[in-house]
What does this fold into?
Amino acid sequence: MLLILLLVPLFAAVILAFVGDRKFAPEINIIGSAATFVAGAGLALQVFEQGPMLAGKNFFFVDAFNVYLAVLTSFVSMTTAIFSRRYMRREREHGRIGHIRIRFYHAMFQLFIFAMLLCLLTNNIGVLWIAMELATLSTVLLVSLYRTPTAIEAAWKYFILCGVGISQALFGTVLLYFAAEKVLGEGGEALLWTNLNKVSGSLEPTVLSLAFVFLMVGYGTKVGLVPLHNWLPDAHSEGPTPISAVLSGLLLNVALYALVRCKVLVDGSTGTHHAGNIMMGFGLLSILVAAFSLLRQKDIKRMFSYSSIEHMGIATFAFGLGGPIATFGALLHMLVHSLAKSAIFFTVGHASQMHRTQDMDKIMGLFKGNPLVGWGLMFGVMAIVGMPPFGVFTSEFLILTATIKDAPWLTPFLLLGLGVAFAALFRRVQPMVSGDVPPHQKPMKAAHVPVILHMALVLMLGIYMPGFLNNWFHTAVELLK
Amino acid sequence: MDINIASQITSFLAALVLLTAFAMLAQRRMYGLVNLFAWQGLFLSINTAIVGFVAGKHHLYISSVLTLSLKVILLPYILHVLIRRLKVHKEVEMVVNIPMTMLIGIALVIFSYHLTAPVMELSTLVTRSTLAVALATVMIGLLMMITRRHAVTQIIGFLAMENGLFFAATSATYGMPLVVELGVALDILIAAFIFGIFFFHINTTFDSLDVDQMARLKEED
It folds into this structure.
């Protein structure tokens, strides 16, 4: 099942590269992503029944932590493919992209999904790095898809900054292997996470704490943590909206996943809170800087990119804080943020297509112009700022509770960040959704399935947590202790 | 081969790698830079082969050949073609002047020695003394990316960083497992195609490869 899950997007990428810009290419894209999701759900069922497992000569492994992220990744990529069908058709009509770029777009989209799933499911931390780099490379040219000066600038920044960042992570991985080799002997076995986790107590602590600094800078760049976040608002705002949705909703999660996996090893070795403290520092700084940057934004996609930085900061902070409640909150936060943020990007994409601009001052009257887009955006923002009864409220509440208990002096900063972000987003969204329909707004058929599905899930997770998810999270919390 | 001699040869090659890194910092012409990059790759490749021979690690021969074909032949060739096609021979103005850059480079080397000192104490390999040089090469590559404002130079700096990382892997652990080495090589290859495409996009959109022109995306006040 695990191998099927990885092979489906890879095959889909090859097929789509050949199919090119035929009439049914978006449908193939949807079918490919749906098949990936089915395989992901199958894998989840298997893990649910049999517990964690290894596959492919220990090369791949699944446990409670990565299985839920793999399902999430395949689910959001499916809904994004559905959204992208309408969205890209509209972009074609506007003449922003041609045949070759559509071919390229579809093939790269699937390759990107493959890279993320490989990242999540591999057991080898070297391959984890390679897959992470592949995920960056496959999206660089998608960010510059429109070939406008700003898009090219954004993509170049993304390529260079993430390339540099991720090389630091490779150095960290080399150091980790250096320590592992002493205990486990040479060869691929010494890079397998499951093996490393077993012996993490006997890994050399000085080397691992040095390695963690490099890993933190490397993967932290990809998570978009302040002060390594410069590429993120540009890359997320200049690319096509489906790509913004998967970058914000999925890639950031995957990078954070890589970081947390490394943190577990480092903690096991040093036995101190060294790694956690670093993560808390980066996380808190990200929350505050992103919240205040939110106030200054004029471009709608840029604003929500800063909101992604803020939420990744919250999750990083919570993982750094550690403890069962905070970790549970962080896991839930990754899930609900991903669902809510991609739903927001779907509505934002339609809203900017209707007005042919991303400038927030020119977007208005969405409730009347297109109720689905208007209400979708409104509810999306309500969810993302953490209003009850949405799932983000639950996760932020858990994290806040844990902070009050374990690090009370940080609570005011956390609250300040959340409060400012709340105010900043609402101040901007109110004028966009209310009011009369402006003359430059053009009606369009929106893709409603993805938005409704995502929002319903976020709402459900705030009210009722399914038993299996609860189990997984508890197992993952045990794992990350 | 005697372990002592081997250790001396690797140290000598490490010195050459560091020297090429510094030479790259001072070089202003594009072709010169690409050639220096190729030399650095060659030293790395020889070093890898020697380490492989001394330590009896046969997978290092594969990495050595991979380095030779990728970093000494293919990438410099691609860069030469791109430079000729795009007609960029001279570097644009630097942010910091050359003597200053060299001084920062020296500081980075000292910093690298300081940082890797605890790791080197733990190592028993022939190559352990070169880990600091490897880290220094990474840092100098980074410095080059920061101080140069030309897209091609930035990419060469990026590739020089990659060289340093590869060197680190050889000197700290006798190379990463083969599957990882191959994957990294694949990623570099893909990256090479991407920056090749990029140079043309930047050049046609901005009429130059000076990255200072790319300053439209800023926070508005």
Observations:
- Residues 79 and 450 of chain A are 5 Å apart (CA to CA).
- Strands of chain A lie at 53-55, 60-62.
- Chain A touches chain B through 50 residues (CB under 8 Å).
